[in-house]
Amino acid sequence: MAAAAAATTIGFPQAYLEGKEVKETSSLVTELCRHFYTQGWVSGTGGSITMKVHDASIPKPDQLIIMSPSGVQKERMQPEDMYILSPNGSIISTPSPKPYPNKPPKCTDCAPLFMKNRRLSLGKRLRKLGYKAYEMRNAGAVIHSHGMESCLVTMLNPQAKEFRITHMEMIKGIQGHGYYDELVVPIIENTAYENELTDSLTKAIEAYPKATAVLVRNHGVYIWGDSWIHAKTQAECYHYLFDAAIKLHQLGLDAATPDHGPIRSPTKFSVKSGVKDSQNQTEPPRRCIVLDIEGTTTPITFVTDVLFPYARENVGKHLNLTYDTAETQEDIKLLRSQVEEDLREGLAGAVPIPHADEGKEKVIAAVVSNVEAMVKADRKITALKELQGHIWRTGFECNELKSVVFDDVAEALEKWHSSGIKVYIYSSGSRLAQRLLFGNTNYGDLRKYLSGFFDTTIGNKKESKSYKEITETLGVDDPSEILFVTDVYQEATAAKAAGLEAVISIRPGNASLPESHGFKTVTSFSQI
Questions:
Q1: 195 near 126, Cβ under 8 Å?
Q2: Distance CA 475, CA 470 (A)
Q3: Which amino acids are annotated catalytic?
Q4: Which residues define the annotated binding site?
Q5: Strands 452-454 and 65-67, bridge-based pairing
Q6: What is the value of pTM for the model shown?
Q7: Average pLDDT rounded to a whole number, residues 484-507
Q8: Domains along the chain?
């Protein structure tokens, strides 16, 4: 009766609680718990799963939630053993007790870590995290694992606040990451009771917007996804990567460097003796480098006279050949959205891109016209950069393109890498375009010396908040430990405003700088 009354109160009749969607979700949770038990993730009654009841007729934030109970043998659970929770986390259906030696049912201590507005004696402060996981992260399922690898990986460095790994195939299974990206997972300290983790877990999720997992030292990991399939896939990839990092560490190898070479103590670097800034001050030591591309690692002429013309001349051909692929359709969708915004703002050169039902030829003609106008205006927008990256990929694969870096770049990258210094790229070009450029240079493949890539999806290069976001992503407490090298005065100013140290690159063809600009300048990476 109590369950029926509670269900009716929140808008779900008892018949719905006993309906197909709820039963299927409860069965799925029990099936997954049995599977995870065989993986060692929920043994000893530990671990938990919570999952939205998928119902296409109900908006995701308003869907019911199924949660596995605490303190039970996860491999022996039945669908009727599940808790049913309202969208705000209140219990609307409790499983019936089982005879001795089974324990009375108990809603998991992890509940406040998953839920929003949990109406239990744990209080208002416990409501925050679920809001992050289920609404801000659009979670459809959350998995809490006690897998051995998720525990041990936090012990490799007791002072570390993050787990980092790069250049591993399974990173591609983590939302928003590719093979060449650096995966960063925050680590928080364990507490005696799981419900006491809420504050630190909330802060970790807020500080790491790209994260889909949080490690708890000596304990386990919380992983979420937009559906149970996504959460399960990511959980499998995370556990694989944790295990790989542990084994690499046992071999004395560093999982956080592109070539997974021998573990080294971090080496700080500084500007060479005698090299001064415009105010005659010597730069302090740094430990991370973020590099611009155009006018910094690569001649401006290569971008303006080779890459841009290639993309402009081949956009029609590329669209015709790949029009029916999901990738190109997504490129057209992004450009259409951008053009609609441009038209509202009255930007010159913008022409409407018709929808697919008006014909392939009309769509392609409109896209080509807009791309030409955007390139002519030198616009640094994600929609254009994504399409250009895909066109350039074809050029590099067909050996029609070969990128160029300045003569001092390859040697400097190798030197910094061998010293244990992490180097990243931040460019208005897409991450794909960046990887293509450094993977196909006149000095060979230089990606092995790079730890990650940032593009305009993290923010505009002339806005200081973009550099604050990079600092948080890199996990550097003091932003002055990051050295940003660029040829653009406005970018250097934005980086400095975010607390980074900035150096301006003086290369042939670069724009002139304002007098008394206040930044140190270098004409070669050998001066760093």
A1: yes
A2: 9
A3: 169
A4: 110, 144, 146, 219, 292, 294, 427-428, 461, 487
A5: unpaired
A6: 0.61
A7: 95
A8: 14-95+105-114+132-251 (3.40.225.10), 288-296+404-527 (3.40.50.1000), 301-398 (1.10.720.60)
